[in-house]
Design brief:
Blueprint: H1 3-11, H2 33-36, E1 48-54, H3 66-73, E2 80-84, H4 92-97, E3 105-108, H5 113-122, E4 126-132, H6 138-151, E5 154-160, E6 172-179, E7 182-190, E8 196-201
Helix pairs in contact: 5-6
């Protein structure tokens, strides 16, 4: 491998920041064109930890990710999609109806959800790992971000919206608020992200 090829490969690593002028890697489409227009790389990051802050668990936060989860689980050579300590047990027929390949989904319980999430993120066996946590510490979030980079995995941490003012090592932070037949998403943090809010209206969105 020549020097230029080695440099190009090094610069692709998610731990390296190349400045605001650098192009973002192509993201994973969210399935919502209006949201993709706000996100760096026009989609979810493929590697790293993102936080989605909600007023209460079960208020539509998972619906936001279903198109991406379907794409990941049905991709050629798909790795695992791991759910850690979901507040409600996922309903398999509903997931299948959304296009998610159930044979690529694993649900993990237990008393140490953040530890389990860290192991999933860093294992290299997952494309995405999701978890719900009420009061993670800043050092725990930092460990999750590093594990996601190490495993080249997308990590999603759902947290209460009151955490919006707290510092976080996550690469992307969104606040989600139900509005009528959809949700309002406010972008709180993201390298190169367009700050502001976007409303996503979708029939059947849980409220």
């Amino acid at each position: 491998m020549d020097r230029d090829a080695k440099l190009a490969r090094l610069l692709e690593h998610p731990a390296i920041w190349r400045g605001r002028s650098a192009a973002h890697p192509r993201g994973l489409p969210s399935g919502f064109a209006a949201l993709d227009a706000y996100l760096p790389g026009e989609g979810w990051p493929r590697t790293g930890l993102i936080e989605i802050l909600v007023s209460r668990f079960g208020s539509g936060e998972l619906h936001l990710l279903l198109p991406a989860l379907a794409a990941l689980t049905r991709a050629r050579c798909a790795r695992w999609c791991v759910w850690v300590a979901p507040p409600l047990m996922p309903f398999a027929p509903a997931l299948a109806a959304q296009g998610i390949a159930l044979d690529r989904v694993a649900v993990v319980g237990g008393a140490r959800p953040l530890w389990a999430l860290e192991q999933a993120l860093g294992s290299g066996a997952c494309d995405v790992a999701l978890a719900w946590a009420r009061q993670p510490k800043a050092r725990e979030i930092r460990r999750l971000q590093l594990a996601a980079e190490r495993g080249r995995t997308l990590g999603v941490l759902f947290r209460p919206r009151r955490a919006a003012r707290e510092a976080s090592a996550a690469v992307l932070r969104l606040s989600l608020q139900p509005i009528g037949a959809g949700v309002r998403i406010t972008l709180l943090k993201g390298r190169g992200a367009t700050r502001g809010a976007v409303d996503l209206l979708r029939p059947g969105w849980p409220v």
